[in-house]
Recover the amino acids of this structure.
């Protein structure tokens, strides 16, 4: 375990630093941390030139008395942005991959306190080091104990911020799932009577929805979204106590739940209500930047819609591979017919050609096929569209799907 600490104007007299039920009488917060923890092997002490002259020798001597090896790193005063970045790089370079770190920011003069705290957060988020504690020694000279405040839990605010952003913007809930499980585990191990019972399960549901959405598995995604809608009110109380950052984005999470609909049972079949939710999911995918997933699923959505037009609500054969193939081939035949080219008839051709929406459906399938092929063939085409245009094309496709749905269902 390595202590990272800033040197500053040291206190004049001893005080009793306390951490939990333990206490250490000393002038130096660094010594108190090492003695109270009992597991620190080395220390890197950061000091401006003035702090080095005032504090390096007595602090290093006190730490040597604890059996802790010390190293001095002289840093600038932090009066410019360049100097602050230099301090940040010095902090990062002083830590080896995989080390367990204790940060002490007691003497982080001026902006150094914030730089130290954010450096700890950065190292923890990137996984370069395990941050076991972030201490601030609240020195008192009135005879009262001076508590060592452990600010480590506040690092989780940044962890939650990153994880929530990843979920809402990129459909990645792995961070939320990991943090929720860690929070629940810590609450149980600490013996809290109000330890959360529903939080971990809810986080797993969020993660499952995100994975299913990224994999373009709409039936699974919508079914899991219905679980989010079902459980969100029950778990809100636990969020308010243990994961406040999730409370701040409840409205966004509820919007995910609004996508939900139960998985169609075999004997019930596909419904117009499910297809409508599928269309909402396509829009959600495009909004989250999951363009490949949204466009890929759009093709299957078109087949679903046409099967319902042909066979009616609650069609039980919607997953039959031969039926789906025939319907997709029918679209292709209609495109060839528009071009005046020969085509192979399918079991649906006569019916399809008589539909009032036939021309709109055929043009939409042609648009969809072009965009899908651009994605599916990874741009390996003679004249692929610019990647900067693909989001716009996906958004336009979704709008055309919505217009088509209004025509066929209202």
């Amino acid at each position: 375990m390595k202590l990272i600490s800033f040197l500053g104007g040291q206190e004049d007299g001893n005080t009793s630093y306390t951490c939990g039920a333990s206490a250490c009488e000393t002038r130096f917060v660094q010594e108190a941390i090492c003695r109270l923890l009992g597991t620190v092997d080395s220390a890197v002490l950061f000091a401006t030139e003035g702090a080095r002259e005032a504090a390096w020798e007595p602090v290093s001597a006190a730490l040597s008395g604890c059996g802790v090896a010390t190293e001095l790193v002289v840093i600038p005063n932090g009066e410019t942005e360049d100097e602050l970045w230099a301090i940040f790089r010095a902090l990062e370079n002083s830590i080896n991959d995989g080390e367990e770190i204790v940060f002490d920011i007691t003497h982080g003069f001026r902006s150094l306190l914030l730089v130290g705290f954010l450096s700890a957060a950065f190292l923890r988020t990137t996984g370069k080091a395990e941050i076991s504690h972030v201490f601030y020694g609240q020195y008192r000279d009135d005879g009262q104990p001076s508590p060592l405040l452990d600010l480590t839990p506040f690092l989780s605010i940044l962890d939650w911020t990153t994880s929530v952003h990843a979920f809402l913007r990129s459909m990645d809930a792995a961070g939320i799932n990991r943090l929720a499980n860690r929070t629940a585990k810590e609450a149980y191990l600490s013996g809290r009577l109000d330890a959360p019972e529903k939080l971990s399960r809810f986080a797993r549901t969020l993660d499952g929805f995100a994975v299913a959405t990224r994999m373009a598995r709409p039936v699974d995604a919508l079914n899991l979204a219905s679980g989010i809608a079902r459980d969100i009110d029950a778990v809100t109380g636990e969020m308010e106590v243990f994961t406040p950052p999730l409370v701040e984005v409840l409205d966004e999470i509820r919007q995910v739940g609004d996508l939900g609909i139960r998985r169609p049972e075999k004997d019930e079949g596909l419904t117009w209500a499910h297809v409508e939710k599928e269309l909402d999911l396509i829009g959600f995918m495009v909004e989250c930047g999951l363009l490949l997933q949204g466009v890929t699923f759009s093709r299957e959505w078109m087949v679903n819609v046409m099967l319902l037009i042909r066979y009616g609500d609650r069609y039980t054969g919607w997953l039959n591979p031969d039926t789906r193939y025939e319907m997709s081939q029918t679209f292709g035949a209609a495109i060839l017919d528009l071009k005046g080219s020969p085509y192979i008839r399918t079991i649906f051709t006569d019916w399809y050609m008589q539909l009032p929406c036939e021309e709109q459906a055929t043009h939409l399938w042609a648009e969809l096929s072009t965009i899908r092929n651009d994605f599916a063939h990874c741009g390996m085409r003679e004249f692929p569209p610019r990647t900067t245009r693909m989001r716009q094309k996906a958004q336009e496709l979704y709008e055309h799907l919505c217009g088509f749905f209004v025509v066929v269902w209202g």
Remarks:
- The first strand starts at residue 2 and ends at 6.
